[in-house]
Each structure stands twice: as C-alpha cells, then as structure tokens.
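Dear colleagues,

As part of the handover before I leave the project, I'm documenting each prediction I ran so the next person doesn't have to rerun anything. This entry is a single chain, and its sequence is reproduced below.
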Amino acid sequence: MFFHHFYDTRLAQASYLVGCQATGNALVIDPNRDLAPYAAVAAEHGLRITHVTETHIHADFLSGARELAARHGAQLLLSGEGGPDWQYAFAADAGATLLHDGDAFMVGNLRVEVLHTPGHTPEHLCFLLTDTPRSPEPVMLFTGDFVFVGDVGRPDLLEKAAKQAGTMEAGARQLWRSLERFRALPDHLQLWPGHGAGSACGKALGAVPSSTVGYEKRVNWGVATREEDRFVAMVLEGQPEPPAYFAQMKRRNREGPAPVGALAPLSALDDATAEALLAAGATLLDLRPASAFATRHHRGAVNVPLGKSLANYAGSLVAYDTPIVFVCLSEREAEAARDALRLIGLDDVRGWVAPAQLPARAGVAQPQRSAAEARAAHDAGAYTLDVRGRAEWDAGHLPHAVLIPLPALADRLAEIPRDRPVQVHCQSGVRSAMATSWLRAQGVDAIDVLGGWNALRV
C-alpha cells in the first residue's frame, strides 16, 4: 500500500491519496481545488487516480472531487446518506456512485468500508481502510470532520452557517450516537482527520496530523465524555464563529463546484482599466501588511494581508458577486493570493495594481488609537465595536461595547452608526485592522484600536 498525506496550511485542511502498488490503482479522499499535487504524487509513484471520494459536503472549502474525477476518468463516490435535503444535486449528472453505511469498495487490493457518522453533517461518512495483502485487520480510519486529534466535529454549522434553524442540538445528539460507534472500533486503528489546528470546524483541534482510535478514546474530551446531555452542552459551548463564506461553500459543494481549469498568468492592470473596474463595483483588496496599509493606501481599499489566513478572512470581507483587484508588489504575490481565494470559490480576480498606482485614490492613512486613548474615549461615551468571537467576549469585555464578530460584519452593517466615529478592537489587533479597513470602505468613520483587548484590559 502507498499512502500520502496532503496538508494545505491555507485551509488547515488534510486530504489523502492511498494506492495499491500491485495494481497501480489509487484513491483520493477529500481533495480541494488545487488538483496538481494529487496528480503529481500519483505520477511520481506510478499510480493512476481511479477513485475519488469525500467524507461530506464541505462547508469550509470548495471541493475538487468532481473535477479531479473528471480529469482522470476516475470513479466518483459520494455520500448517499442524510436524507433528501443532504444529497449531492449533481451526483447523477456526474455519474457518481452513492455510498451508504456498510458499503465497501476495492481500490486494487485495498478494501474501503463505509461508515455513516452523522452529527457534524447528516450525510457524513468515514472510511475504514484494509490493506488486504498484509492483513485482514483494518489499518486506517479517515474521519473527515467527525473526530479530530483532540476534538470532535462541531454540530452547529448547519444552524450558524447554513441557516438551518433548530439543527444544533439534534446534530449534537447524532454526533453522540456516532461517537458510541467510534468507541467500539479497534484501538490500533490509525486516525487521519480532515483538519488540524487553525480550522474553524472545531474548537480545540490538535496540531499533530494523526492519532490512533485508542489514544483518542483516552484523551479526546469529546470521545471520553460518557454522559449524553453533558456532551451536548459541551460540544455546543464555545465554538468559534464560522467565517461568512461557509454558507456559500455548503451550497456550492452540494450543487457542484464549477471546474477551475487551467489558470492563466495574472496581469498587471493599467490605471484606466483598474479605475473602470472599481467604478463598476469591484473590490480593491490590498494584500500588504497592516502596518504598510495603515501608513498609506488607496481610498476604498480593504486590507487582508497575504498569508495563510487570507482565504479565511477574505471569505468574510469580500462579496462573492463582485470582481476583485489586488494591490500588491508583484505578479507572484497576486497569483499566490488568487490561488488561495480559488480554494473558497472567490474566482473573479481581474488583475493587480502596485501601491503607487491609481493616483486619484492614493495617500489615505488608516486612523488608529492607542489602547489608552481608546479607553478614555470609551469612558467618555465613544462607540466601541468589538469584532472578536463570542467566547472571547465572554472571557472579558469593555462595558457598553458592542459585539459584532468579524464574520458577521457584512450582515450587520446597518447596526453600525454613520453619524459618529466607531473605534474597533479585537483580541490582539489583527482582525480589527482588517475590519476597520472594510468598514471605512463602506463609509463608516472607523478607527483601529492598537493592541486590542490584550492592551485594553491591562
């Protein structure tokens, strides 16, 4: 058996390729839209991608399963569980095979057994792998967003992100029943989850890429909790706010993501072309560090620095129905940002401009306040906007401040005053700088509080 673990730090997301070296057949589990690595690893090891599957309809990234299967002429295998509201709408058109609890399929000499593990989502599956030439005992369990290293999948996303009211507690109780099944599995099984630390699909994901079923039975709080009502309360408490784009991903992955195809180089735009795009409603997304943006930037620009969290934050601050123009220093930076945004379906990137371009929009600084200045202003009645998550707020906040987590800003913009300054803070200053830039682009007189709550509470 051949095994390869892919990990995309931009999404804190894992996917897998397992192959039978005797026959050359290979299976890819939970591919994202960056398809080249899967083909490259398969080719390097003399394997053919003959099967593609995924554990569930993902909410945190756009799936590459359909396109990968089509490119390689592979069999596409998708969950047929969860009831009519949770079926893949494109499955028949794509010639997909629907999988149900207890099904099994062969990838060369590798046997893959299907386990229905609802809770995170109603259709969620796990895959139990047996390397039959070596042993009749299974060796690996691919758990998707069901059980992570140190955590379990959150059952509240359907309600919080997909707006399916009244599903949180029912999902938590489904998850409990699925965990009872997990506890009956052999301790020796290697556990390979769908995400690691930094993902919003749980609240305490470990940074170690894999574990064993036996170890998680002993130390994973969700697996170790043996009283159902207590588990339900604990799994619903303290979950991070899901990025705003999660609702988009759930819908698009159910309907069938558009293929990416080959990507052309991303061109630098002249001033006239860029201005015409911006006049038509394009988002000017500045990829520079917050310090550079604060010193001098284009009027109307939104600052989300290029880094591993670009997709996470841009997915909450950039509208899906508008083209995007980057502000950055090179074509290389622009293409890195484009590649990150396509992972979440923000595909309409038109090009990039340098910071010195667009002279009519240049020369704007982002207003800032020290923590001491912000506290004094708050005590004098200033409007203070806290863009942290609810769990951070509950751990301590300024009296009379207003909580609107960053992922909810677009939905709750109407609540934010336009007739007076708004000082914005988060925990450390990273999110507030981005939020301030977005609010100012919407016409709010926003001021960034340096150092965030860490400085304010001292």
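Residues 169 and 261 are 40 Å apart (CA to CA). The two ends are 56 Å apart (CA to CA).

All the best with the project,
I.
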